[in-house]
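User: Can you help me understand a structure? I only have the sequence.
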Amino acid sequence: MPALALPAATERDRERAALIVIAAGVCAALHVGKLPPAIPVLQSALGLTLVQAGFLLSLVQLAGMSVGVAFGVLADGLGLRRSLLLGLAVLALASAAGGTAVSAAQLMMLRAVEGFGFLLVVLPAPGLVRQLVPPQRLARAMGLWGAYMPVGTASALLLGPLLIEWLGWRAWWWGLAALSAAMVGVVLRTVPDRAAGPRPATLLPWSQRLRHTLAAPGPWLLALTFACYSGQWLAVVGFLPTVYRQAGVDPALTGVLTALAAAANIVGNVGSGRLLHGGWAAPRLLAIGFATMALGSALAFVDLGQPAALRYGAVLVFSMVGGVIPGTLFALVVRAAPGEHTLSSTVGWMQQWSAFGQFAGPPAVAWLASAMGGWQYTWAATGASALLGLWLVTRIARLLAARSAPTRPG
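Assistant: Let's start by predicting it. Here is the structure, written out as tokens:
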């Protein structure tokens, strides 16, 4: 037996620990998704305007927008497990305090704090999964990780309306705080402190890793493409409860419809890995994703007399096919990063720009809806983002072609 092989029970324990890490990511995503079903209630309870609601949707991304790449560069020094535990604790405390808020300003401040907790959870999690799972099962595990956001968001959108109607929005905040606190205990018991061996002695100083990352075109292209996707996805799915509530749809049905729209994104995330493994080119998948999002948004929001079922179907397709974009971008990190020593910082840079997209997208769409007196021009904002994404895809295709081209002998 090879010297580095692990006993079967130990491997099972480590794979179980990897599932717990993924569950921690879902727990963090619940805090992102907990707000949309509460927006109509918060508008009445705290006097939120529509634009303030847009900023509440996006403030959770403030930390990622400001320090994502720094956290990626410093992840090894911070300790992956320690970062995960600290992030869960911050989410628990901020959500518990948010349940006591009496003004929009207080809730916005605590929403920003939740964003730091979210970042502390999701940045180290892929590294922990990579350390815990055997190489032959890594692709499947990373596919599961890629779906953490839509799973958490869909769960919050499905459960939120029911619990808010039954117990109120404050109990919804406190319940998720308790869940995050419980997850801290689960991670402490199941995830080993040292999931892998010692840090390599050849690891470059953080300043060099940061410089190499930001000087290369690959991380920039992936990050900006992620921003084009994330901003429009959160703007559309995040405001669905408000759109349907204004249209007179029953709150319980609104929660189900929005949760299904978010859950459809899981199909694209998981499916992207299978398609890439089957030989599909990454730029092709990205282009299909952006083109479908543009068409889906137009069909959903432009009133051409189409039935409501068709418009909702367009939202489902928008989310499902768009889901291939983040899965494909994560798969491209190894090929687009300037080197092995910049993988974490490249992921951090992608997270930073993804957060920027989610920070800017909802307020922009909310402003457009307020200025135009309705949601009928949402397609213009999402379509512009999709067009920029398609242009970036052409640049990614050129980069990949240059990387794969054989080197001519001198």
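Now, to help you interpret it: The chain has one domain: 8-404. The chain has a mean pLDDT of 82. Let me know which part you'd like to focus on.
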